[in-house]
Write a structure and sequence with these properties.
single chain, alpha+beta, D-amino Acid Aminotransferase, Chain A, domain 1, OB fold (Dihydrolipoamide Acetyltransferase, E2P), 2 domains, seven-stranded mixed sheet, seven-stranded antiparallel sheet, 8 helices, disordered C terminus
Length: 321
């Protein structure tokens, strides 16, 4: 969040200028002193706490949100760090000094400040981390109090550490594939996955569904079927991608431009950080940051997970007060 020369600019992590999409946040930053630059995060807000990330997705890439959307999905900027004050670059200062100046700034000017979470032992930190999902967050961000603010990827420096909770997992069936990009352009490495709409009665029922898919028969209403719910393109080794590519080419049923529909044969374990309902997906469910954890050579198709498995993971909102 940049406040300079009487103007405000909001830059995304992907170096995109997104100011116009968040007018309420830009208006708030317009009250800050000139020459102020903060690092932080835009969060959809619900009452007195952050809302699930999927709520924010309604605002992302909307250049001119209307009044209705602004009212339905209010967004706040939560400040993490102070990079510039009064036009002076503070990134080389130790974190604890930048934090003191950030707290002083936000005591006088409007913005949300990320809380400090003091702990006197690793076990105390681990206990806080264990309750992350109940607070609607992914874990803890640990920062050395004397650390400077690094530019670019600084994981190797060892002074900041994103200590995430273990991901949610689900065993899913590969149903579509698309060619990759760059050095993977010659391989099918971008995958779409499905789960059963209900648990199969056994291997025979699942096999019958696969045979029907092979005959291009549409699923019957209420019958067992595979529901597409996620895409992922990372997590396998180069050798594994090549092995999966061979299976994809051998089990292709139809081609739709760069996409191939497949006869289901492979099961993979996916990891993801969050899950929510989504009307944009056939399954009615959307995942946050899905990726492949491993190829389940040991798991037959009928033992893949179902929508019921995912339903149990959805974080249901608290009833209104």
């Amino acid at each position: 969040m940049v406040r300079r020369c009487g103007q405000v600019w909001i830059w995304s992590r992907g170096e995109e200028l997104i100011t116009e999409g968040f007018p309420e946040v830009a208006a708030q930053a317009g009250l800050w002193p000139d020459g102020t630059v903060l690092d932080g995060e835009l969060l959809a807000w619900d009452g007195d706490a952050p809302a699930p990330f999927q709520r924010l997705q309604r605002r992302i890439n909307r250049q001119s949100p209307g009044r209705k959307l602004l009212a339905e999905v209010p967004v706040r900027f939560v400040a993490y760090d102070l990079l510039e004050a009064d036009g002076h670059d503070l990134r080389a200062l130790p974190l604890h000094r930048r934090r003191q100046r950030l707290e002083a700034l936000l005591a006088a000017w409007p913005a949300c400040l990320s809380p400090l979470l003091p702990a006197d032992s690793w076990s105390a930190l681990a206990a806080r981390r264990a309750g992350s999902r109940e607070r609607g967050v992914e874990g803890l961000m640990l920062k050395h109090r004397d650390s400077a603010y690094g530019s670019g990827r600084t994981k190797a420096d060892g002074v900041w550490w994103k200590w995430k909770v273990d991901p949610f997992t689900v065993d899913a069936v590969l149903v579509y594939a698309q060619a990759g990009h760059g050095r993977r352009a010659g391989l099918y490495t971008d995958y779409s996955f499905a789960v059963w709409n209900r648990p199969p009665a056994g291997p025979d029922e699942a096999a019958a569904v696969v045979e029907a898919i092979g005959r291009r028969e549409p699923p019957q209403p209420g019958a067992l079927q595979l529901a597409t719910f996620a895409k992922a393109y990372s997590g396998l080794s180069d050798d594994e991608f090549q092995a999966v590519d061979r299976v994809i080419r051998a089990t292709t049923l139809e081609k739709f431009g760069p996409v191939r529909s497949l006869r289901p044969t492979l099961v993979f374990e996916l990891g993801f950080e969050g899950i929510a309902r989504s009307p944009r997906h056939k399954s009615g469910i959307a995942l946050r940051f899905p990726r492949i954890l491993r190829w389940r050579h040991d798991k037959p198709l009928h033992e893949a997970d179902s929508l019921a498995s995912l339903e149990t993971l959805i974080r249901r909102p608290d009833p209104p007060a």
